[in-house]
Design a protein that fits this description.
The protein has 446 residues and is of the alpha/beta class. Helices cover 34% and strands 21% of the residues. The strands form 7 sheets. A 5-stranded mixed beta barrel has the order 16-17-18-20-19. Strands 1-2-3 form a 3-stranded parallel sheet, sandwiched between helices. A 3-stranded parallel sheet has the order 6-9-12, with helices on one face.
């Protein structure tokens, strides 16, 4: 989501007459940083480690380049404690949704310096305080896509779930769904330009609704767009994963066989404390239903690969060390991972976040124990991921090629492949898998 936000911010700033100091991957980031006059941080506040990196980078830049202008946006920008800590280092704090309005009101160009072809570090401007104008809809900004064949398209922003550990509802506000026509227009334009993979984004895509169009119906509309392309999405909430959505994914020719379904914990008491609003039994039933539904539709031969009856790849998010997670509760999470046999899991150590309900809970699991638990779950993940990947040996899969003989499958498996001919970057290739690892495949183009 931050990557997508940055693309919209970049497009907006260029409309104001600024040019990026780092163009199309040319030059070095260090040189670009030295030459830029304006630096924008799109921040993440999910964990303390991400927040600490922002403090370090802002302080280093301000110390080395005292005259550069710095804007801080994203999920940390609204917090008063962050603003106090960086008040002498950052020129503008603005949330993503207010970015365009805030910048228009806060950056005034000197008339003699306006030049649409001038680079940002040659453009003179001043920062001043002014009354904030009404918010513009930043999602209507046409982004400057940084990847010509894989694009991130936000369909909604914000969240209404208020999980006890999560800052998103406070940082991004309540759920807002983009009009379906805007999403279809953006997706259709991308496909016409040759985009091969569209990744739909939202804090909880399952909650999407535009009039009578819910998320399953939106997926079916996107699939009707002419052209050869994949559709993926991030991320789903288990309490909102419907049979209609599972069916729409399973029967589609364009929607990838990949489902991100965060579990967060494998213990009902911890889920209750997290305010996740589902049980482990419900979560397990969803995984079984997804796999069974995909298996039925495989028999209809709607897939573009030769994978046969393989299950979809399923990933999960897991938090270790949440307040109150004792050894028994943790073992329930380990048990869940063994039973569900995830292809991927993003395992993180619990980090107390200001404003959240868990901020008032005692952080009663030591750092050392959090590290140990993360290692235990990572080991389980490596075993289940390798077991799942072994099913690919000898199979032919469709791969979206990146540079350097690399790419990924519809199930988001990383692939390294060999070929006698140069495979165009951003095109599809058929690859026969000859070797697998826990988190990657190897093969040859056929």
């Amino acid at each position: 989501m931050n990557h997508s936000d940055a693309e919209r911010i970049s497009a907006y700033l260029e409309k104001l007459g600024l040019e990026p100091a780092f163009k199309n991957g040319t030059g070095s980031p260090a040189k670009a940083l030295a030459s830029a006059g304006l630096i924008v941080f799109v921040t993440c506040g999910v964990r303390q480690s991400a927040e600490d990196r922002i403090y370090g980078q802002v302080n280093n830049i301000r110390k080395k380049f005292p005259k550069k202008k710095i804007i801080l946006t994203g999920c940390l920008a609204h917090r008063e404690d962050v603003q106090r800590r960086l008040k002498n280092k950052v020129d503008i704090f603005t949330t993503i949704k207010d970015f365009s309005a805030e910048i228009v009101s806060s950056i005034k160009y000197q008339a003699s310096s306006i030049n649409r072809k001038s680079k940002i570090h040659n453009t003179s401007y001043s920062i001043h305080n002014t009354k904030k104008p009404p918010c513009n809809n930043y999602l209507k900004i046409i982004p400057k896509y940084t990847n010509p064949y894989t694009a991130h398209v936000p369909i909604m922003t914000g969240c209404n779930n208020f999980c006890a550990y999560c800052v998103v509802p406070y940082a991004r506000g309540r759920e807002y769904s983009r009009p379906a026509e805007d999403i279809l227009k953006e997706a259709g334009g991308l496909v016409k330009k040759g985009c091969r993979e569209i990744i739909l984004l939202g804090q909880n895509v399952n909650s999407y609704r535009s009039g009578k169009i819910n998320f399953p119906k939106l997926l079916r509309l996107i699939e009707k767009i002419p052209g050869k392309f994949w559709v993926a999405f991030l991320t789903s909430h288990p309490k909102d994963m419907s049979d209609e959505l599972i069916g729409a994914i399973a029967e589609s020719k364009k929607i990838c066989e990949y489902v991100s379904l965060p579990a967060q914990a494998g213990d009902n008491e911890i889920l209750r404390r997290m305010n996740r609003k589902y049980t482990i039994a419900h979560y397990k039933n969803l995984i079984k239903k997804i796999r069974a539904t995909f298996l039925r539709y495989e028999l209809r031969k709607v897939r573009n690969t030769n994978l046969g009856k393989l299950s979809p790849a399923i990933s999960a998010d897991i938090i270790v060390g949440f307040p109150g997670e004792g050894n028994i509760q943790f073992e329930n999470t380990a048990k869940l991972m063994r039973e569900m046999k995830f292809d991927m899991a993003y395992i993180s150590q619990y980090s107390p976040r200001p404003e959240t309900a868990a901020w008032g809970m005692k952080d009663d699991v030591s750092k050392k124990e959090k590290v140990r638990r993360e290692k235990v779950l990572t080991k389980i993940l490596e075993e289940t991921a390798l077991m799942n990947n072994k099913k690919y040996i000898g199979k032919v899969v469709e791969v979206l090629a990146d540079a350097g003989g690399r790419g990924h499958t519809r199930t988001q498996k990383k692939v390294v492949f060999r070929s006698d001919k140069k495979t165009p970057v951003g095109e599809f290739a058929k690859v026969k898998i000859t070797k697998v690892k826990a988190f990657g495949l190897e093969g040859e183009i056929i």
